[in-house]
Protein: AAA family ATPase
Amino acid sequence: MIYRVEIENFYSVRERQVLDLTVADNVRADEEHLMPLYEGSDQRAPKIIAIYGANASGKTTLLRAIEFIAGFVCNSATPTEISQDIHPFNDDECLTKPTRLAIEVGGIINPEYLSEGAPYEMGTLRYELVVQAEHGMVSHVISETLSQRPARKIKWSKVFDRQGNEVVKNAAQFRLNGFRHLLNTLKPDASLISTFAFFTHPTAHFYAKALGSWVYTNLNVVPAFMSGDHTLMQRLKADPVLLKALNRDLSRIDLGIQQFAVEDVPNLGPQGRFTHAGHTRDLPWEMESQGTQAFVRLFPVLAEALSMGGVALVDEFDTLLHPLVLPEILRWFYDDQDRNRGGSQLWMSCHSATLLEYLTKDEVVIAEKTSQGRTHFYTLADMSSQEDKAPVRRSANLYKKYLSGALGGVPIVG
Structure:
């Protein structure tokens, strides 16, 4: 799980922003909303992180930062690399400065546990990346550092420290024996982890998975009007288990739908069709309601994160979905007895104030943009450190406070 994100000179973020979601064990909070950073940890973090703010305030920037790190760690060295956009803050000074990103995650930190019979060790990992961007892409890596902190320890120890194309430090967990030659061909715009994992380095695979392969997102989905949802239909057609799970939840949120199926049509490929109660003919995908289509598009991201114990990054979570469907999806992530036994997280940007009726102050992040176009983040649990803002009580009505403007993150109209 992700409990800390740091961003500097990335899209609308200019100055370094630190988002720390940890909740100490002595804080009284709704337990179903929180989970330990790792098994046995005294600190907890929320299962759901809801990012609120006015239009263009930088909500998506936070999601993009996490997505970028995950993709860079996993895919930047692969021949089939998908281009990842990266842009510094848009002023003359920042365009020539590096972008700095970091995340901290909790979980298993000892890659040796992958060997049969080896014990596993819990703790936290910290990944720091400093890159120079040009023309919307990484031109070169300035530094890349991975550190770990075992359970009950205070200090971090470095797994590796890369400066440019040189590894200046590596621990036993990231041995270079038999792989040192890769440093001679290390691409300046690729991750050390991604490079070594591609060439089957045993522990690089572990760290790639721990830091990024569990992230699922709708951020880079091709718009429906461009793709006709062809990729979505191919995916559902190829995965009967996912399609069955989708039908189960569709029947719960739309009483009129009896079944959704995907069939191959000559010259068209896989096409979606809905069977409705009382209809003698199936309804084709393009004639279904926009709300149902939105739910189907979002479902694979949520289902895969929940089944894999991963992180779902959802931009515009509440777009087109009925207000009563939204809290139902939140309940999936709160349900650690059935739907979310793997400790998955949901990070979402949204506008729906009614969702605040279901959230606690630990779960709400506010994105605000200054008159100079600079994005700042803060949590409601951290309101006391914000200028001109009072602390938020756990018993406070977040819905009323947000609409009144007391929490920030609302548009100024007129």
Summary: The mean pLDDT is 90. The longest helix spans residues 290-308.
